[in-house]
Every structure is written in structure tokens, then in C-alpha cells.
Amino acid sequence: MRDKLDIIRQLPIDRPVVQYIRQSTRKQVKRNRISGEMQDADMKNTLIETHGYRPELILPAISKDTGKSGTKSRLQRSGLDELYRLIETDSVGAAAAFSVSRIYRSLSLAETGRFCDLLLEHHIPFITKRRIYWPIRDDIKALQADFQASADYITEHILGTMIAGRDYHVAENGSYGGNGVPVGFQVVEVALEDEDGEELIVKRYVEYTPHADLVRWLFRRYRELGGNLPLLGRELERIDFRFPRLEPGIMTNLKLRQDANGSYPLRNRDALTDILTNKAYIGVYEFGETTTNNAHDAVVPLNDFNYAWERLGVPPEERKPRERRYGGATALLDGIVSSGEHPVYVVQGQYSVQPYNNRWRTQVLVVDVEDIDSAFASKFGIMLRKLERSDYAADLHRQIEEIKQQQQKTAVDYTKNLIRIDTEIKNAEMAQRVSQRLGDEHGYTVATTQLVQLRHDKTAYEAEQQQANSKASDLEECHELIDKACCEWNSWKPDKRKRLIRMLLPAADMSAVSPHFIRLRCYFMTPLYRTMDMYLYRHNGSRHVWSTAELDTLRELFPVASKQQLMSALPAVTWQAINQRAQALGMLPSGSYSRDLPLTYSDMRMMEATGARTDKVTWALVPEDMGVIQYEGGVG
Question: How far is CA 264 from CA 86, 261, 271, 424, in A?
Fold first, then answer.
């Protein structure tokens, strides 16, 4: 009996063996193509080095089922069907897979039992990385149990029979598992010694000095700037910071996108943040759920990394939500005004436009809330008084009556529809109860589906009816508020003003139409249907940064050109700024120019085109079917 058992437990290394490879999802295959290659290479090495198979007897691995789940049956997996047929026709003496989960992750005892019975019937050993399942009762029972365990717990296992080849190397040896490489590293093969003293070749991160030096500078510079990331970003943009082209022979798939000249720029805020929070720079290798400390040599001092990590490294899901403070009860246009496609926030008493440029938040326009709101409120009051003298009241009354008549007309239809729906709901509930009592699963499912749809329809009808009812009441409230505002607007408190403004004004746009002028364009809805343009002068306009071309123009024209010619050639610069820069360049004595009101050539052209003024706010009402009407006067 012992001899028979020994014969059974000898692998048939004189017969062919075939390996089955599978990766669960297309996403996994796309991102981790190396996993399948590692499974194949690892098992080939195990079959040859450990079990004594000759290479010519190892059949090409079956890899047709990449992207298919282990929960699918033989009929749903052509690769698994091929493995079955090879066993059924006695074409192989053994079958292999990196782990049992490659064959099945199914809870179906019928499906996994069929495979186990096939191995037992044809006396086929099943070889995995961790063990051999011999074609005897006890081992086949163990294989069946492991199939069940792989279905129940595979997501919880990191090592053991449930691990893929790539993840095994990553977890056991800190080996590189694929995907993009952080800048500052290259991937090389390193010879290690396994627990048996044999040489093991793995891939590791190794410092690539031309890039690593720049990474170290980034960490150091971030700390020198007191953790001010926007300041560092602007400095990098100014010096055109980029990592140089890889040296010949260095084949590394860096995470950064390469420019046409072969260099690697930091294109946005995220790219810089990713570097300053990447644990790879202190020797940590993270791959999926596996983390290996001291996987490679650190390239950044720990204190520099910790400084950046404490400020940038907290995961977004763990960050404390930042409370956004808008205008509260004081800013009349809070939540209404925007600037093109960019939002406008109320921050410290100012309307602030803060667009994102390559993930960097920049502040391009700031106006005091008091300046905008006082001008808007005054002009809005004037507009209401002008409307009071028009026939808008009659138009509004007509709209309200039309809505009420339409509401009465449709109320009957709503009622009929709701009665019909309620009847069908009762029928569906009855069908559901009957099906449940009779054990009719299909009938119960149909009735439940119908019931869900009917209740959804009822909710939609009720919401539509409520909206129709509120439309007339909102118009009536709006009419009442306008009547009161015509006489009481100046005495209203901000919250009451905001109530009327929000009812009439769904949107407003704020923009700097020239360096010293702000335009507020307000789009009013029913019952006004008006657009109001308001122009506001700012003594301290947009900050101007001299370009190289402007400086060249100044050097060329200042000695010979007139004031008009200079301002025309430099349309975004005030006369004061032109003279101050000329003094700095040594072309003008100190204090030898007149100090006029700060205006640029662009400002003056805009004033001519719109009638905007520096001493008062100007505004215009634009009726739906008329041109712009410019009203005389300013703040009343």
C-alpha cells in the first residue's frame, strides 16, 4: 500500500504539463499586464527547477480567459474548456496554475466538484505555487475546500494561495510590479538571495541622479518657502523648471508626460503635489494594497519629506471639510454673480474671482462688496421707480391670470391621472400579495417592478402640480415686493433686499472690461426681462506686470514720442506707470511728470465706447427688443 501511495505521489514528469492563466477583469489586464507574464514565468520556473520538468514538455500556457471572472463556468470560459478537454483526452499528465483562485472563485459546489472529480478520475495532479494537490481523496477534498475559500476570502488575502504572481513578488520581495515610475528613479534588476540561499532576480527602484537631484531641490525649496505651494509653483513657472531628457540607454516609464524635446515639465499643481507626497522618495513601495518599507534606498531626507507630508499628504477623504464663507446676509449678489465660467466668492468683504489654471487657484479680479452692492442697490432702486411709471404692472397681472387659468385647466387632468395611478397601485399591491402567497416568484417580480414605476409616476405628477401651483404664488409675491420696493427700497434691510433680488435676478456677470473699469451685467427674468449694464471705476486697477516687449517699446519710444503716442503703444499702462518705469531705467529725472487720474489708453477707449465715467457709476437698461438706453446722471 505504501509503494502504491509513493507511486501516486510522483509527478509524471515524462508527460506534458499545461498551465492555466487568468486575470479577472479587463481593467486589471490593461493596468497589470505584467501579472500574467509573472504567473507564466514563475510557474515555468517552479515546474523546471522544483519539480524537474523538461522545458519541452511544458505546453504553451492557456491564457484565453484574460478579463473573465473566476466565477464563470466552463461553458463561459474557452480557456477553461480547453483545460478540461486536455484532461479528458489524457493529453497531459498534470495541470498547473499559480493558485487555485485562477481556476475557480465560484461558490457552486457542482462546478468546482466537477473539476475535482475530473482530476481524480484521470489521476491528474494539480500543481500550484504553494502545493501539489494529488489525485487522492484527501487532497481533492482540500482542493474543493480551497476553491470555496478563494470565493469567500480572496479579497482579504495578500499572501498564500490567493495571491497573483505579481503581487507575490511585490509582497515577498518588494519587487517592482508595473505602472509608471516616480521621477528620480529607474527600474533595474537586482540579485537577491531567497530563504534557501538561492539567487533571486527582482526589479527594484534605483536612484536616477540627474532627476533625483532636482527632486531633492523641490523638497528643500518647498521648505525654504515656508510650505507655500502657490509661491513655489510660480517660481517653477518663471524659471521654466523641467526634468531633463533621459540619458541614452535608460528605459524608464516615468509618470510625467514628456515634451517634444524629451524633457519632463511639471504641468500643473497635481504633478508637483504628487512628487512632494510620494512615499517612494523615502524608500516605501506601494502597489495596490501592498506596502513595503525599505524596498529601496531613499532619495530625499526624511525631515524634508515629513515637512511636505504634514502639509500636503493627508488623503482627501480624511481632510476636514473646509467651511466656505460667502457673503452671509450682507453681500446682495452672493451666489448670483459669476465671472464668465469662473465662480465668484465673497472673501473678507470682497467679491473675488478665483479661476483654476492648471489646478493652481489664481486671483484675477477683486472688488469690494461695498462698492458693488451700494452701486447696484442705488441703480436697482432707480430702475424700480422707472418701472413703476411703466405698464409693467398690467403685464404682470396679465401673466398671473394666464397662469391661474392654465392651472385650473390642468388641475382636472392632474386629478384624473392621480386617481388612475392610485387605482393601478392598489391593483399592483394586490397582485404582489397574491403572488407572494402562491409562491409565484415571476409574478411577484413583475408586480413589484410595476409598483415601483407607478409610485415614481405619482411622485412626478405631484411635483409637477406643486410647481404649477407655486409659479403663480411666486409671481404674486414678486409683484407685491416690487410695489413695496418702489417706495421703501432704500429703507429695506439686506436680507429683504436679497429676497427680491434673487426672485428677479437669476444671474449676473462681473468682469474687468479694462484695467480700471468693472462691468456688472445683470440678467433679469420675469416680469422685467431686462439686462442692466453697470460700469464702476476703480482707482487701484488691475496689477500690471511689464513684459519684455513692453520694456523694449518704452526704451525705443520714450525719448522721442509724445504722451499720446506712448499710451497708445502701451495701452495697458497708465501715464504714471510709464514715467515711473522710465525713471527706474534712468531716462527721466525724478518727479518731472504730471500725476493725472490713473487711466490707461484702454480705459479711455472703453469710456468713449460706453459712456463710463470716473466720477460716478453709469448704467444702462437694455429692453428685450431695444438697443441700449444710456441714462444721464449717476448715483442718485
Answer: 51, 9, 11, 65
Q: What gap in Å lies between CA 218 and CA 225, rounded to an integer?
A: 11
Residue pair 221/234 in contact by the 8 Å Cβ criterion: no
Report the alpha-carbon distance of residue 260 to residue 263 in Å, rounded: 7
Residue 326 covered by a domain = no
Residues 109, 209, single domain; the answer is no
Nearest CA to 185 out of 163, 205, 169 is that of 205
**Domain tally, the chain:** 3
Integer Cα distance of 527 and 475 in angstroms: 8
- Overall pTM > 0.90: no
**Do 123 and 51 belong together in one domain?**
yes
Strands 290-292 and 517-523: unpaired
Phi, psi angle pair for 443, to nearest 5°: -60, -40
Least confident span in 156-170, 388-402, 478-492: 156-170
613: in domain: yes
**Euclidean distance between CA atoms 539 and 553, whole angstroms:** 26
In angstroms, the first-to-last Cα distance of the chain is 113
What are 486's three cell numbers?
418702489
One-character DSSP codes across 6-67? HHHTS--TTS-EEEE---S-HHHHHH-HHHHHHHHHHHHHIIIIIT---GGGBPPPB-TTTT
Q: Are the C-beta atoms of 432 and 451 separated by less than 8 Å? A: yes
Residue with cell 489646478: 359
The model's pLDDT over 396-406, given as tens digits with 9 standing for 90+, comes to 667 666 766 66
Reduced DSSP (H G I as helix, E B as strand, rest coil) percent helix, strand, coil of the chain, to 5: 50, 15, 35
Q: What is the DSSP string of 517-582?
A: EEEEEEE--TTT-EEEEEEEE-SS-------HHHHHHHHHHTTT--HHHHHHHSTTS-HHHHHHHH
- CATH for 258: 3.90.1750.20
Task: Tell me the three cell numbers of residue 109.
Answer: 459546489
Amino acid at 502: R
Partners of 519 in the β-ladder = 511, 535
We report the CATH number of the domain holding residue 62 as 3.40.50.1390
220-235 pLDDT, tens digit each: 989 888 888 888 888 8
Domain of 42, in residue numbers: 2-173
Q: How far is CA 306 from the centre of its chain?
A: 26
Residues 36/164, Cβ–Cβ less than 8 Å: no
